Amino acid sequence: MTAVQPPITSGLISGSYVRALLRAVADQGYDPRRFADEEGVALEMLEACNHLPAPLFGRLYQRAMLLLKDESLGMVSGGRVATGTFRMMCLCVIHRPNLRAVIERAGEFLDICNGMAIKPQIVPAHDSVAVGFATVSEDSSLTLKQILDADGPMRVRTSLFMWYNLLSWFAGRSLPLQRVEFNFDKPGNGGQWSKLFRCPVEFACEQSLLRFEKSVLDLPNVQSEQSLSVFLKSAPYRLIVPSYHDQRLSDRVLGIFGDDLSRRLPGAGQVSEQLGMSVSTLRRQLLDEGTSFQRLKDECRQAAAMQYLATSELTYTEIAGLLGFDEVSAFFRAFRRWTGTTPSGYRASL
What we know:
Blueprint: E1 8-9, E2 12-14, H1 15-27, H2 32-38, H3 43-48, E3 51-53, H4 54-68, H5 85-93, H6 99-111, E4 118-124, E5 129-135, H7 144-151, H8 153-171, E6 177-181, H9 193-197, E7 201-202, E8 209-212, H10 225-234, H11 237-240, H12 249-257, H13 268-275, H14 279-288, H15 293-309, H16 316-322, H17 328-339, H18 343-349
Parallel strand pairs: 6-7
Antiparallel strand pairs: 1-2, 2-3, 4-5, 5-8, 6-8
């Protein structure tokens, strides 16, 4: 199946990747027109568009995975991956304390998962740490190189990009990459890959992997079962269009807040301790960035509300509860105060 990991431009997906998804559906013997109709869009629009809103592409991507009963769409797998595999893997790792433990437990899960031939693997180095690929068992009939070569550069790139975004979600922040390395020669569009990963990209390396500073994998897992339930409803959108882009202190604070806003958010003392600084330093640096701790709390709920509203499966009652509101009416009033429009108006505009 054709790899369909798209470049990202202001929440828009390139039309060429939309058409690649349609070809993948057609290659499996399914009618692309029926596929588009089931999502309520015209096939002619999808075939002619220059760009498509990322939430719509995410829904089409999810529909294709369910339709084809293959969650490996566009990724290295070595075989068809049964529907529900990703959800069960996430449930197995959700309570792990940090990113290192998340990767290790995910590997243990994939070792016994039918259909998967590879898993993520931590690759230690002298002055850094990396996340690459490994076969799921020592008695695999194919070597790692044979599996990666068979799937090709685009699937390898898609797999690393989605694993990077998944780990960033667990950490609640964009992870600082030193560089991304690939064990194949630079493809025709390879010059654009550094924009996708937002870091240097090197080709013809010994392995294909994401390289970080050593401390990155010790970052805490800030997610919970409740935030995971929301994440899974919007997957693979969150793996295609990540929510975290830079490393400002305010973004790190928002990452610590996490996605589960139904609980009481941590105070400035708790956050500053986790960041390894004093409360006064935290407040001063936030002021330098033009914000404050309280403002971030408000913005966190607003951003989460907009994200939840983009997930059509969530009702207004569910969203209100996820944001910590006791009543839907209180959520509507707060959202109007934040944005000048109602939740229903915002959802309709999407």
